[in-house]
Write a structure and sequence with these properties.
The protein is an alpha/beta fold and about 400 residues long. The protein is built from 16 helices and 12 strands.
Amino acid sequence: MTDRLLARTTATASVLATASAAVSLLNARFTPGLRTPDRDITERIVVCIPARNEVTTLPSLIGDLTRQRSCTDLHVIVLDDDSSDGTASAARTAAAGDPRIRVVTSDAAPPVGWTGKAAACAELARLADEGDAQASLIMFVDADVRLAPDAVAAAAGTLRQQAAALLCPWPEQLVGSVAERLVQPLLAWSWMSTLPVPLANSMLLPSMAVACGQFMAFDAAAYRAIGGHGCVAASATEDLDLARTLRRQGMSTVVVSGAGFVSCRMYQSVVDLRSGYSRWLWNEFGGPVGSATATVASAAIYLVPPIAALTASGSVRRIGWAGYLAGTVSRMAARRRESGPRFGVYDVVDAALHPVSILAFTGLVAESHVRRQRGSLMWKSRPSPSPQH
């Protein structure tokens, strides 16, 4: 790279990194969050939990749900999706006879063309509507999520306050291993550094939708109107596609910070992390061309400035340091809003390693496409639907 090209590339990348930092800081200040409701929620709420081999995580979530407050008509349905580790038994033990909690087992394979999670969620929605009283609010919560005592009521109240068809309280992504610390904060950062959240929440553009399948609270009538999970049966990113479908039908979707109310540790090992991201990253940017564009752009913005800071001299070096610091600030601001009061020194260290995170993310995107081409995408020991679906 010639000196002139390096100077121009560094300057451009630093400007873009600074812009992303500005958006992240804006969102850190103005992204709405859940609030403890000032009155009981009297609507019928059904919390649906798809669970496949979740014996170590599900009991904690069920314990959280037994302690929910300010919901006078709360029901919980757990679907043990052909588990082989005693998930159903652990769920019943954790429920301890609570009449609000129903545990259902299924050994049926997903229909052809359906992902396992979409099929499980569709069955849960069907069970939620059994009987005379249909759910007014349907919430899908992953088994590895943890909830504060007011989380469900806060989500219900915020959804109604926002007059939304879908509310996604973004969980704090808990991390343990080095790999998790490098990758997991990128989930929130990816949208907090590019989308002004208050503006995105106020619009119906599908391209500005943000969603997280770990916790999705639906107005039940809106969910039924789009056909529920049936409209995203084969999707690798069913959460985002559900939000986009609602927006195309003229219904609003909202993302808020779940800090202090909702948290989740998605993966317990590097193997699970790689398998989990490979399952859907191939589809995140619309295909190989979109993925290549996104990864090259992120690499240019967040790798060129630190390289220039370490290898160049004079003004180019100073601009490189400015771009690197902007990327670090962008990560810190996003993480601060995501984690709330638990933000600490380790989060600052993780943000300083943002260029390494970008490299790790690029590798995960490439691995996802390779596995997709080989037809070897798996999750929870099930293959993903074939390309023709």
